[in-house]
Amino acid sequence: MTTTTKKRTTTKANRRWSMVDGRWSIAIALLLCTWLSVGTMAAQRPVNIWQGTDCRHRVELTPYLVGGAASRAVVVCPGGSYFWHDMKHEGHMVAQWLQSEGIAAFVLRYRTAYVPAFLFRYRYLLRGNRHPDALDDLRQTLRYLKSHADELHIDTTAITVMGFSAGGHLAMMAAELLPAAERPHDVAAIYPVVTMDGPYAHKRSRRALLGENRMNDPSLRDSLSVERHVGPDCPPVFLVNCKDDPVVDYHNAVMLDSALTARGIRHHYLQYSTGGHGFGADPTRGSPECRQWKEAFLKWIRE
pTM of the predicted model, to two decimals? Predict the structure, then answer.
């Protein structure tokens, strides 16, 4: 009797260990799958868009590619008042989200004035970086994507430029000021800087973009106020901002919406009550209300 009991006990113990081993095997397999999926969503090595050209600047474009057939592509232009970049929340987090949705994304570190120009105002004497440098970088990026479309697996007829804050202003400049054949297919302007003149102008962005020795030039202010230059051939626009934005006055987006409406340009404007500024694609920033913009964008772009 005793021997039989021991055998049954041993059998039960073995079964328990087998169940534990099985659970560990499943857990390890799931972890491996997760690791592999994360690996496929990693960014590719940045490329210098000006390599092989006469331009001596190094401007990095970081691809987040998707496999399979040619996909829609989005060029991501982070904000930062044209002085710096928010590469995390308005750059790489945005690209990772788009990539997870099967959309190839390319984060552009376009030329800005940078922090030393903000601190020391040396551009009264030296040129530094200023308009049209950022627009030239975006234009070259669009050319690069079209010339490397096969290896990047992207559809050149479906390239979006998505910009945040000052990057939204840059995106709209591409939609208005580039030759029609070189413009993006559509634009997403998220809490964008819009005007360079009047009471709603974001003065830091204006100073950075125009340069200290040109920021009071009325003709330049006018030419770079994107609400004033919406043409009949402007690409479709997805526009988002929050009424409680403490950085870029919400009237910027209101003026752009009015201009797009007046010209009959297809666009979708979402004005949220709460969310502030700078939330990008971060799932913890802003408000639950404003974070709905991502799903709204996906719906818009797929329609």
Answer: 0.86
